[in-house]
Amino acid sequence: MEFTPAEVSVFFALGMAALFAGFIDAVVGGGGLIQIPALFTTLPNEVPATLFGTNKFSSVFGTSNAAWRYSRRVNMPWRTTLPAAIAAFVFSYFGAAAVAWMPPELLRPLILLLLIGAAIYTFARSEFGAVHRPQHTGRREFVYALIVGGAIGFYDGFFGPGTGSFLIFLFIRFFGFDFLHASAASKVVNVATNLAAMGYFLPNGHILLGVAVLMASCNVLGSLIGTHLALRHGSGFVRKVFLCVVSAFIIKFAYDTFA
Q: How many Cβ atoms from other residues are within 10 Å of residue 113's Cβ?
């Protein structure tokens, strides 16, 4: 099969976007901020559901790879992570269903305020996420994990952008994780929400399989680089990338909300 120069340029652009998205996702989440605009820009004639399905297919491979690599090197907080992942998987479906009666755009001003608050809180507290000191055990840990996982799962199904970054902030703020453990835990929860979304997109044919496979391969390569750097340089590195990504989210949400 021969491709035209225009098709080759599209594939190259999407591959590079997926590579960078995989890197960002592996460290702090937020790869959708890169992949989704790239898909909409290069494939303007495709319906949105197909582009979102292609994005989820790509992301789930990179995120799964990152989760696996973190689990081999980090003492994973499974007592918190697994209940959160299960709740996120379930509630992401309800979030997707809620789109029918409440437009996601109505959430933009609220999400913008939450992102600004998270950035200010992290900037102001230099010790935030520096040390891993789990704060809860037993039933309280389980209940808090269900609440956080359910809330994030609903948000991911309903709206989506910034899910990984919000997860990291919540794992640090409410469970006492450092940035590295919070990033590792967030990958497992992200895999659950992505799989739940795929349960809708794949059966309904909302995927460009050739593009999705290409992007998934590049996304995995990016996740290998991201997890390597995060594991090598630790929480300090993850914190810096987190602040950069959240700042980028603030600029994008402000533009989309007020421009």
A: 12
First-to-last alpha carbon distance for the chain, in angstroms, is 43
d(CA 36, CA 229): 24
pLDDT in tens, 187-201: 999 999 989 888 888
- Going from N- to C-terminal start, the domains of the chain cover 5-258
Distance, in Å, from the CA atom of 122 to the CA atom of 259, rounded to the nearest integer, reads 27
DSSP string for 144-188: HHHHHHHHHHHHHHHT-TTHHHHHHHHHHHHH---HHHHHHHHHH
The tens digit of pLDDT for each residue in 102-157 reads 666 677 787 788 888 888 988 888 788 778 787 777 788 999 999 999 999 988 87
CA atoms within 13 Å, Cβ hemisphere of 21? 31
| Average pLDDT for 73-87 | 93
The radius of gyration of the chain from alpha carbons, rounded to an integer in Å, stands at 18
Measure the CA–CA gap between 110 and 117, rounded to whole angstroms: 11
